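STRUCTURE:
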């Protein structure tokens, strides 16, 4: 976790850029992303230099040529503000835009990062601001990979406004819950078709490194597979692609497949049944035109609603046996349109619907107040839903207002995860409890309604009241006392 001292340093950098004229939080993140990328390139080049010195050989595939030495972070960081400004604006930025045209064995030169940096725009308005920010970034020790990742996550958390098209950041603890529930392994091929800042992919990579570290570093093939073939993310916001790529890099994934794609509009046969795990919180933008939607999705479910189209997309992308944990608006659970019903029926009858987790409406504040749920399902194409596990999440460890104040003593997440991992023993749980199983036949009988309130039973506590005659007698005595008090008051006033 990020410490108080590091937190204050990041806050100071943020305030410096704000005061310097870069007021848009997304622009602040973007400019810091470029600077961190430039710093990272210098670190990688330094590692190559040390290796060459150790082996007494020339540097293998250097990032910087001899005549580009002055473009390295460690060289220009101590230059005068005006000199640094001109170097970064006129030479370093053009350099990172062309870097992707030449690959190197470390996966850095021809990586997704360099690909997305081709559109980098230098926005620092004056030399003193650049010098100040470079100086402050340089003072932060980022040699530890966890520190790098936590710093970047903290900066991303400062984007406190919803994006366009219904996009908003998923809280990190909700992402972690979904990753823990799906328990990814090094054999998984993981995808988020609306990846944004790549939060789900980052959390999945952290889980695999923590639980399967030996397996992913046992040999060069395993390492390459983890870094290049495990994580796939798509988005149609190029700024988010740059930020998401940097987020993955700072969390130790060298070259994930993070690329531009309008997932609902582009039908790609190469992606069909490619992934074994999908983790996503797709945008709930409302409606799309039929003309701008991939025809194969419309064959699955004829609708204009993006949340339903994304569910159809997930089913197309998953391998048979593949699983998904995705966030949907509550309307998906009980919507009465033919598209809503047919998709829910498909999940229950043709696939294996594993769980429905109802979340409180404040989880996505301050971005949005919409009520949401987590769906977990497995693609089987042959049914298999016996019982669906329902959980009524009432608290997530934070206040449910716009401030989202931490409340660590008020969280259902540990209980939720523990019960999910032992859900086969939940059969005896009553419908009045926080979690329970519902047979598929009962769900079918309710028109495939998946809202928890349809199945949850409310236990009312019996309250006994006095008979009406006793209450009336009590009222009469009170009226007498009031009348007597009034008479006494009138006597005193005389």
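SEQUENCE:
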């Amino acid at each position: 976790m990020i410490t108080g001292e590091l937190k204050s340093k990041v806050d100071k950098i943020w305030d410096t850029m704000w005061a310097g004229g870069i007021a848009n939080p997304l622009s602040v993140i973007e400019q810091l992303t470029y600077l961190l990328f430039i710093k990272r390139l210098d670190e990688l080049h330094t590692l190559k230099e040390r290796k060459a010195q150790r082996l007494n050989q020339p540097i293998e595939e250097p990032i910087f040529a001899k005549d580009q030495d002055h473009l390295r972070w460690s060289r220009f960081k101590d230059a005068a503000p005006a000199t640094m400004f001109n170097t970064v604006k006129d030479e370093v930025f053009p350099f990172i835009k062309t870097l992707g045209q030449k690959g190197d064995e470390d996966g850095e030169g021809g990586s997704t990062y360099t690909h997305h940096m081709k559109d980098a725009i230098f926005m620092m308005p004056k030399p003193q601001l650049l010098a100040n920010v470079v100086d402050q970034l340089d003072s932060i020790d980022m040699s530890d990979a966890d520190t790098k990742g936590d710093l970047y996550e903290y900066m991303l958390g400062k984007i406190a406004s919803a994006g366009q098209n219904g996009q908003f950041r998923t809280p990190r603890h909700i992402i972690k819950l979904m990753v823990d529930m799906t328990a990814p392994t090094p054999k998984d091929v993981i995808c988020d078709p609306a990846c944004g800042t790549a939060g789900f992919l980052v959390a999945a990579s952290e889980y695999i490194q923590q639980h399967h570290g030996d397996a992913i570093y046992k040999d060069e093939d395993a390492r390459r597979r983890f870094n290049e073939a495990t994580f796939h993310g798509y988005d149609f916001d190029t700024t988010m692609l740059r930020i998401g790529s940097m987020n993955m890099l700072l969390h130790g994934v060298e070259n994930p497949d993070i690329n531009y794609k309008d997932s609902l509009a582009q039908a790609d046969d190469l992606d069909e049944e490619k992934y074994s795990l999908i983790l996503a919180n797709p945008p709930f933008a409302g409606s799309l035109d039929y003309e701008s939607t991939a025809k194969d999705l419309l064959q699955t479910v004829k609708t204009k609603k993006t949340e339903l189209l994304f569910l159809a997309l997930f089913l197309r992308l998953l391998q048979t046996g593949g699983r998904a944990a995705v966030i949907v608006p509550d309307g998906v659970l009980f919507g009465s349109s033919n598209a809503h019903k047919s998709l829910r029926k498909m999940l229950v009858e043709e696939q294996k619907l594993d769980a429905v987790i109802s979340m409180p409406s404040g989880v996505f504040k301050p971005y949005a107040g919409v009520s949401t749920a987590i769906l977990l399902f497995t693609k089987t194409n042959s049914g298999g839903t016996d019982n669906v596990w329902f959980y009524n999440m009432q608290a997530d460890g934070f206040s449910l207002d716009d401030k989202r104040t931490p409340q660590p003593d008020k969280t259902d997440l540990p209980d939720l995860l523990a019960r999910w991992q032992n859900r086969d023993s939940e059969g005896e749980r009553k419908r009045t409890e926080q979690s329970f199983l519902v047979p598929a036949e009962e769900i079918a009988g309710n028109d495939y309604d998946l809202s928890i309130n349809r199945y949850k039973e409310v236990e009312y506590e019996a309250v006994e009241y006095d008979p009406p005659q006793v209450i009336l007698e009590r009222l009469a005595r009170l009226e007498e006392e009031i009348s007597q008090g009034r008479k006494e008051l009138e006597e005193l006033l005389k």
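REMARK: The chain has two domains: 4-150, 160-454.
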